[in-house]
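Limitations
The structure tokens in this dataset are predictions for the assembled complex, not deposited experimental models. Users should treat interface geometry with appropriate caution, especially where small molecules or nucleic acid strands are included. An illustrative entry is reproduced here so readers can see what is and is not provided.
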Amino acid sequence: MIRIVGFDGDDTLWRSQEFYDQAQLDFEAIIARYIDLDSAGLRATLLATERGNLAQYGYGVKGMILSMVEAAIDLTGGRIEAKDIRTIMDMGKDLLVHPVELLPGIAEAVEQVAQRFRVVLITKGDLFHQERKVALCGLTAFQRIEIVSEKDVATYRRLLKEFEVQPDEFAMVGNSLKSDIAPVIELGGWGVYMPYHATWEHEVLHDFDGAGHVVEVDGAGRISEALDRMMSGA
Amino acid sequence: MHGESGRWPLFPCPPRGAVAILWRMTSASPASAPSSSIGLVGFDGDDTLWKSEDYYRQAEQDFESVLGHYIDLHDAGTAQHLLKVERRNLAVFGYGAKGMTLSMIEAAIELTDERISAAHLRQIVEIGRRTLQHPVEVIEGVREAVAAIAARWPVVLITKGDLFHQEQKAPPSRRRAKNCKRLNFMNCALRMRRRKGRSCSPMGPDVSQNCHGFATVSGVA
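Predicted assembly:
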């Protein structure tokens, strides 16, 4: 019997990844003026820098900008000009203040789910940036808002204990198999997987088996129906 | 500005006497204080439980020595300019070492009229990284003090700044499960803060195993 439904924030409630993808393209355009490296090569280098820095910076835009600055200097062998670094910085600032745009149908879907279950928002990343999005998103149904630095089994275990529910009484709705679905399933919970058209490579998970506890939906309008299916199978 | 209480005059400390202090105690004071019905004691993190400000001051000195290659540090008002940039960026970056590093890069580019080399900007990135990696050094006597308080009241740790950095100083994994009830109580206490747009992420103690809960708040509404 599901009692609590968690919703992810970025790319589940509101648009996010496409802003990052645009920043990536802008970054590539700047670096391309200095070196002859194809888009795939640039992307791989930046991703490697970002991953290498995750242990120090955590998730979020500020860490991404610092990684971009670092990668830009390293990729150009120190030839990049300060004015181009400034452009990268400005790109990052734009990302931090981009408008919060809800995904189609999600506001109605959250309201619909909230009529039947307790709903909570569990979002990952930079505290300050996430707080801004939560404050601006206009969704008021959430009984609890959790901003966490990582979404792994330990984090969900801690949250479920605080929510005072068993894992099989919890379902998580999100676009990332790695962060929203797999850890919850590992604990014995349920997942509503709602893929977004763009996914950060770090979040991609291959060969995932949902063990019959995951329903994939093609839009927010199907979330409630997916929960029904779980309830009938639970 | 970064860690806690007013390293720079962003939020100037009120003059002595402007704050109603219930009882000013020193280590030499007799152990008596006004009684009250306090039910929960909160501890700040940076520069209350562990050292923080020293590392930011070191970062500022390192920043100035990089800029010394380009400008006369006395004429340029380097520290003042950095402060100006940080204040300007606070609404975008919030508190913390990552925001400080980004502001340092921005200030360096401005102060040098874009003359600063990429190699020197890279050094500034490393100054920020060192600030993020500084060791957690508990202030002398704090362990004993927290243990003594925890013997009488439930205690919580409420720290401000960058969530990731604060969690590194106080990892969530160390919270004792049996204290969850008290942690939930703390969550209730902080709910009003959430409603004001300041969410909190409760997690466990680290510096003192006596803490029953831990919340990081961004500090900016």
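Some entries come with short summary sentences. For this one: Residues 1-17, 173-211 of chain B have pLDDT under 50 and may be disordered.
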